[in-house]
Design goal:
The chain has 277 residues and is α/β, with parallel strands linked by helices. The chain has helices spanning 42-51, 75-88, 101-112, 131-145, 149-160, 165-176, 187-199, 226-235, 251-254, 256-267, and strands at residues 2-8, 12-18, 24-28, 59-63, 94-99, 117-123, 213-218, 239-244. The model has no long low-confidence stretch (mean pLDDT 92).
């Protein structure tokens, strides 16, 4: 398997793996992209290639947002930047997976740059945050502004997980904060990204999305509850909703194999109820 990583134009982290001669798959990561503590490295590349192993025969690009985001950057602005990457690297038309915040950006990418997008998967992302999600995002933004990185990492684990991990992981991470520096590479990007998530509302542009779309999420997601997911499904002309029973916001990692199997069938042209978990 080919494996490559680094930064594009010295600012935008990326990871590339799979078969570089095959059809492209473009992945937009979630909010955690803004909280990365390290520059792109082989360890993370190996983790991502394993996470997306069901697509090992594709040319997979996992591309982050640029570092040092301008103040006021919106998810629509970020989509424009991704369109430039797709164009400059001749990756279009490409299937797109947007995870969490990446799913918010992917909606604008599909709406504004439809020629670049073949099919799109919105994973753990709806039209906008739910009420609880808005409160959580405001709290994370406030903590980021105060530099309380261990608190944010612990809260992210609590809000994303289900079962025993919902209580165990935050406790362990909070304790680790006494010994581990969770400060991200560019702290200001975390604040700007939280604000972009809070301000995102794609309801008015959903009918501009022509690409076949799948919304895949857990029915126990506390950041993007089911009504927000169904808003996206109902607003996009060619959309499928795949709900994972009992799963929360960490679907992309907790059920990666089953999720990617469904996304693979979707990208291969299968549609409808047969995709549901």
């Amino acid at each position: 398997m080919d494996l490559d990583y680094g930064t594009l134009d010295g600012r935008r982290p990326y990871y590339r793996f799979g078969d570089s001669d095959a059809d492209p798959l473009f992945v937009l990561p979630g909010l955690s992209d803004a909280f990365q503590r390290e520059e792109p490295n082989r360890g993370t590349a190996m983790i991502l290639s394993s996470l997306f192993r069901e697509f090992s025969d594709r040319d997979v690009w996992v591309v982050g947002r640029p570092q040092h985001l301008p103040v006021g950057s919106s998810t629509r602005d970020m989509a424009a930047g991704y369109a430039t990457v797709i164009d400059e690297h001749d990756l279009w038309p490409t299937d797109v997976i947007g995870v969490s915040m990446g799913g918010l950006v992917a909606q604008y990418l599909a709406a504004d740059y439809g020629d670049y997008v073949d099919s799109v998967a919105l994973v753990s992302a709806g039209t906008r945050l739910g009420g609880h999600g808005e409160n959580v995002m405001r709290r994370w933004r406030n903590l980021a502004g105060k530099g309380k990185w261990a608190d944010i990492v612990a809260e992210m684990a609590r809000e994303s997980a289900t079962g025993y991990e919902q209580t165990l992981a935050p406790t362990l991470l909070k304790a680790a904060g006494r010994f581990v520096d969770f400060r991200p590479v560019v702290p200001a990007d975390a604040v700007i990204s939280c604000t972009a998530c809070l301000e995102h509302d794609s309801r008015e542009i959903l009918d501009d999305i022509d690409a076949p779309t799948i919304i895949a999420a857990g029915d126990a997601d506390r950041l993007f509850p089911e009504p927000r997911l169904r808003e996206a499904k109902d607003g996009i002309d060619d959309a499928t909703l795949a709900l994972f029973k009992g799963e929360s916001h960490d679907l992309a990692t907790s059920e990666s194999r089953e999720l990617n199997g469904i996304l693979r069938r979707f990208f291969d042209g299968f549609r409808g109820d047969g995709l549901h978990p």
